[in-house]
Amino acid sequence: MHEVDVVVIGLGPGGEDVAGQLAEAGLRVVGIEHHLVGGECPYYGCIPSKMIIRAADLLEETRRANTMAGRTTVEPDFSIVAKRIRAEATDDWDDTVAVDRLVGKGGIFVRGKGVLDGTGRVEVGDDVYVASRGVVIATGTSPALPPIPGLADAAPWTNREVVKVLEAPASLIVLGGGAIGLELAQAFSRFGAKVTVVEALDRILAPEEPETSELLTKVLREEGLDIRVGVAASNVSRAADGTVTVALADGATITADEILVAAGRSPNVRGIGLDTVGLDETARPTFTVDERMRVVGSERLWAVGDIAGRGAFTHMAVYEAGVAVDDILGVDHPRVAESHAVSRVTFTDPEVGSVGMTEEQARKAGLNVHVGVADSSTSSRGWIHKEGNAGLIKLVADADKGILVGASSVGPRGGEVLSMFNLAVHARVPIAELRTMIYAYPTFYRGALDALAKLHD
C-alpha cells in the first residue's frame, strides 16, 4: 500500500497534463497508463494524421500549379510520410520520451490498468495507492466498431491501424462521414486511392452547419471521391483475395482493397471500478462534471478529457486539466470550465473551423437568432487564391445581446481564421465592436466583414 496525494488514471493529453502540473507543484502524484503515455493524439490521432494530410495537400497543391504557375508532375509516395510518422511523431510507438517527461517533473509512473476500489483508492495489480486529495480519471476513448454483420471479422482499419500503413491502398471504403473519416478519405484519395465514403446520416459532417456539409460534399466529389449519404452498411465481408465488400441497405455493393471505420468512439470506462464510487459504467454519459471538473455524485473524484463529455478534443482535455489542477491545488481565483466557446477544426481541404453554437442549436436554445453567411471564395484573398479557394464564413448571433454565439470558417487556413471568432464568442465581444475593427487587406479573415454585413433574422 502506497500513500500519495493524487492518482491519475489514464495519461492521454489531459491526464498527463494533470499529473505533470501537480508533480511540479510538489505533490506526490502517481500516473497510471496501460498503453502509451500521451494517448491517442500523438500516436494515432492529431499528429500522425495531420502529417498524412500535410503530405497529401502538398500533392494537390503541386497539381494545382498546372493552372496557375506552370507545368508540373508529381508521383505520390506514401512511404515517405509513413517513415516520418515513425521517426518524428511516434518513435515507432514507443512512449519512453513521454514517460521520462513525467518522471522528470517529479511524477511517479506506473504501467498497468488502474482500478478504483472506493473513494481515493486505486489498485494496479497487487499494489494499492491511497490518495489523500483524490483521483483524476482521464481514460479517454477508443475507436468503436458499429454492430454491422461481418465487420469485425473483416479486419478493418480504425484510426489506429491506418497511421501504421506503409503504402496507400489502390481503393478504400470509409465508413463514417465525420471529421476523422473525411480527413483521411481525402488524403488517401490524393495519394491515388479510389475512395468511397459511406455515411448513414443524410449529410457528411452532420454536427456542422448544413452549408458547410454542402460545400465540402461538392469539393470532395469534384476531387473524385464517391460520397454516399443517407445509406447504412448492412454487411461487410473480406474475400480470400483480400478485398473487402460492403453491402448497403439500398441494395448496392462496394468492393475495395481496404476498409477504414471512422464511425464513433467508446469511452474507456469498463472494468475500472466505477461501481465502487457509486457510478454506472454503462450509463451515457458516464460522468456528469461540474465547473471544477469534479464528478457529481462522488467524492474527491475528477474527470477530464473525452470521458467528461464536453468535447472529444485534445485542446479540451488540456483545458479541463488546468481547471482540475486549480481545484486540487486550491489556488486563489481558480479557473472554472466554460463550454460556450468550444472550438474545433476538421483538417480537410478546405479546412472547417467552428466555435460555439450552430444556427440550429441557437434556435433550439430559444435565442433571437440572426445569421450572416458569406462566400469567402469571392472575397479579395479568396479570389486571388483561386485554385482551392472554396469556402464560406457563417456567423450566428444572439440579436438581443448583440454578440456572436457561434461561427464557422471554411476555406484555406479555415482553422486559423477561426481564431478571431473563437475570441469573439469566448469574450462575448459586441458585434458593433467587431464591425469597427481594422481588417488587414487582402486576408482571408477579412471575409468576416462580408458575413457581419449580412447578419439578419
What does this structure look like?
The chain is 32% helix and 24% strand. The radius of gyration is 23 Å and the shape is globular. The model has no long low-confidence stretch (mean pLDDT 96). A hairpin with a 4-residue loop joins strand 4 and strand 5. Strands 1, 2, 3, 4, 5, 6 and 16 form a 7-stranded mixed sheet that branches. Strands 17-18-21-20-19 form a 5-stranded antiparallel sheet, sandwiched between helices. Helix 1 packs parallel to helix 9. By secondary structure, it is an alpha/beta fold. The chain has 3 domains: 150 residues, FAD/NAD(P)-binding domain; 112 residues, 3-Layer(bba) Sandwich (FAD/NAD(P)-binding domain); 111 residues, FAD/NAD-linked reductase, C-terminal dimerisation domain (Enolase-like, domain 1, 2-Layer Sandwich), CATH 3.30.390.30.
Describe the sheet with the most strands: 7 strands, mixed
Strand content: 15-25%
Q: Provide the structure class.
A: alpha/beta
Proportion of residues in helical segments: 25-40%
CATH topology type of the largest domain: FAD/NAD(P)-binding domain
Q: What count of structural domains?
A: 3
CATH architecture of the largest domain, by name, is 3-Layer(bba) Sandwich
* Amino-to-carboxy terminus distance: 63 Å
Broad shape: globular
CATH class bucket of the largest domain: Alpha Beta
Number of strands: 21
